[in-house]
Amino acid sequence: MPESKPRDVGAREPARDLGLSDAAISAGRIESDENVWTRRLVLFLRVMAAVSMLQGLYHWAQVTGFVGTEDDAFEAQSMAWQSATIYFAVIELVSAVGLWLATPWGAVVWLTTVVSMAVIELMFPTIYGGNLIVVGFQAAFLAAYLALAWMAARERPP
Q1: What residue spans of 34-78 are helical by DSSP H?
Q2: Which ranges does the record mark as transmembrane (predicted)?
Q3: Smallest Cα–Cα separation from 88: which of 121, 39, 137?
Q4: pLDDT tens digits, residue range 99-155?
Q5: Phi-psi category of 104—alpha, beta or left, where left has phi over 0 and alpha has psi -120 to 50?
């Protein structure tokens, strides 16, 4: 019976070394400029996720009374204002999660919030005051998203 050699614990098998080096090479690979618009789109979605989260938290602060005076209290507002505030308090946080994950449903929910806010500001000025600056920002965010999504779609082959 041949005597077995004690195995060196520090020694690695050649095939295993090859696998590790391939993994290390692919993990450290620098991405080419092929996906530059996709990366920009994801960065934009993450920024919009942070903005949506802050807006949602602000609406919840209005509901709970952390912001505003007694005259601005949630209970003292009209039913339309209360309904819109609760709607945005919920949908903004949902869209923030979806945008951060860069999921298609997150973009859809975010687009719903953008259009909803613009419609409320333009068509129902008695609710939030009809602030055209808010509408302008919403339109700019929407245009930026559409431009980035279009450029990202162009860099991927069909």
Answers
A1: 36-64
A2: 41-61, 81-101, 108-127, 133-153
A3: 121
A4: 999 999 999 999 999 999 999 999 999 999 889 999 999 999 999 999 999 999 998
A5: alpha
- Cα 95 off chain centre by: 7
Q: What is 91-124 written as a DSSP string?
A: HHHHHHHHHHTT-HHHHHHHHHHHHHHHHHHHH-
What is the C-alpha to C-alpha distance for residues 98 and 106, in angstroms, rounded to an integer?
A: 4
Residue 88 and residue 67: Cα distance in Å, rounded? 16
- CA 41 to each of CA 28, 54, 99, 113: distance values in angstroms, whole numbers, following the listed order: 23, 20, 11, 18
What residue type is 33 in one-letter code? D
| pLDDT-based confidence at residue 29 (cuts at 50, 70, 90) | very low
Question: 20 Cβ partners below 8 Å, 6+ apart?
Answer: 12
Distances (CA, A) of 6 to 9, 14, 101: 9, 18, 50
The larger pLDDT score, comparing residue 24 to residue 113, is at 113
